[in-house]
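Subject: for your reference before the review

Hello V.,

The reviewers asked for a structural picture of the protein, and I figured it would be easier to keep everything in one thread rather than splitting it across files. Below is the amino acid sequence we used in the manuscript, unchanged from the supplementary table.
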Amino acid sequence: MKQRGVTIWFTGLSGSGKSTIAHALETELRRQGYGLEILDGDIVRTNLTKGLGFSREDRDENIRRIGFVAHLLTRNGVIVLVSAISPYRAIRDEVRERIDDFVEVYVDAPLEVCEDRDVKGLYKRARAGEIKQFTGIDDPYEAPLNPEVHCHTDAETVEESVAKVVAKLTELDYLQQPAVV
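And here is what came back from the structure prediction:
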């Protein structure tokens, strides 16, 4: 199937639902016959960006590397789902400028909701001072100013969030219009 490549960049706090939405979108797009790849921030950090820390410079380098891989895949017709906190607006904008086909999805949930969802206990450890430079606690998260899609995961279901992303991708001609029967 001939398809148009696009990078769909999910950004938001840890626990906001980025990976959950990305994996649900993956399921839906594969069901429709699209070819895609997922670049999940946690998995990328254990492979592509292993050894980078959490200073601003290291976080920016992490996002640049993810963006580079996403760009290569996108220009070769692959739909790329990136799920990464990517807390700094400037580096997200830098990556957006390099990738012609780029859709930013802001996965938004209040900090309290993200902390309640935290199965790894990272927020608790950050609040106890065990983890330094943790986004949302002692390091900032700069929300996107004009994302193509804004998901409010404290107020909508995963299915509703996925539907919003699919609708935007269809509107932008990355996905084919469903046939009317």
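For the response letter, the relevant points are probably these. DSSP finds seven helices and five strands in the chain. The two ends are 21 Å apart (CA to CA).

Happy to draft the paragraph if you're swamped.

O.
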